[in-house]
Amino acid sequence: MKWTRRHVLETDDWSRDEIETVLDQTRAMIEILQRPIRRAPPLRGRTVILFFAEASTRTRVSFELAAKALSADVTNITASGSSVEKGESLYDTVRTLQALGGDVVVMRHASSGAPYFVAERTDAAVINAGDGWHAHPTQGLLDAYTLRDALGDLDSKRVVIVGDVLHSRVARSDINTLIPLGARVTLSGPPTLIPVAWRCGQPPPGVTYESDLDRALDGADAVIALRLQRERQESGLLPSLREYSRVWGLTADRVARMRQGAPVMHPGPMNEGVEIDAAVAHGASSLIEKQVTNGVAVRMALLYLLAAGSPEAGA
Amino acid sequence: MGIRARGDALAARIQAAIRANEGVEVPLGAIDITLYRDDLTRIGYAPVVRESEIPFSVDGRVVVLVDDVLFTGRTIRAAMDALVDYGRPRAIRLAVLVDRGHRELPIRADFVGKNVPTAAGDDVRVHLAEVDGRDEVEVVARVPA
Known about the structure:
The complex is a heterodimer. By secondary structure, chain A is an alpha/beta fold.
């Protein structure tokens, strides 16, 4: 199919065709990363601005490697040490980005919706690298790619997402990407960390909530453990990390309830011994390192699709 | 080394013919040149990239690039740029089914199936059984405006 989107803000309105186009392009990008010379020229002369107003190492580095592998020029703007720290408003930052003339702005921001605000006010293509509790579409796509690669296809496969779903932009983007590909999602986690509307009311189509993690894992095709932010305990949503680990932590015994060899994933960075045991995180069915490698390729595919053609050329 | 999407099928046929006639198994690869095109900024969308499959080292080897139609030479320029990202071949040769003329770059084929004189605006379409279900080469003349 012909790619028509200008921005990647969230995959909630993407068709199965669009998601599969990205995943197919990702496969071609992985091949580039395995060559002796890991670089191809399609974004020569293009500038990618990485605007990270919230801490991130792996996502930023992943985008930087992706942009460089396609021969783009990369500029970093981080919150600390930039004018953002001096009190510049998001609107002024956008105007600056616009004046700098980037072709793509990759942004992470603590406020949900910030990338939409930027996308409306700049000529550049905007990729959301995580906004508040809202979305992290490139993580959703790389998780879908990693799962599809491991399982063959996702049709009627059942994926368990366990942990702090309420505050997780990863969980939301995973759901928005996996469901159109035919997967079903079972959410599990402490009731205080699951959106009330999904726990008591109606979750999105294809999604169910299971309050017992062992039951959720029985016969499942894959599991994604979410990072538990330690602040959650202080805010009263959890009694203790130790209790969380006992009830919701992925142990070898729990993983064994899934289909044999079912993959284990985690978006990182991990709290080993809290949401996931070290033996599971580094075990044979862990795809956690694969996720990191695939992340670069997914981001290459998106940068290529957004920036290789030229909107002015039409057709 | 076939250039996708039809050169790879032709390269596979040549490999089979060498095997049948000489009993030698020549390594076969397929290369996609989309990322190396020089017209990416002139088209409005990003064309589909297919995976290159080069299951051997090209270092020190003689690599024969295979394509269906040789026209402006730009595809071959892109293929050579792509190929050298995989290593340093001892030599690169070019085999094409049809040479239709009208080069825009200083490139020529070493092996040509057939030279077909055409006008610059004509369209030469190669159909292969593996890709299109039939073997056929069509020359479609430009319709005068």
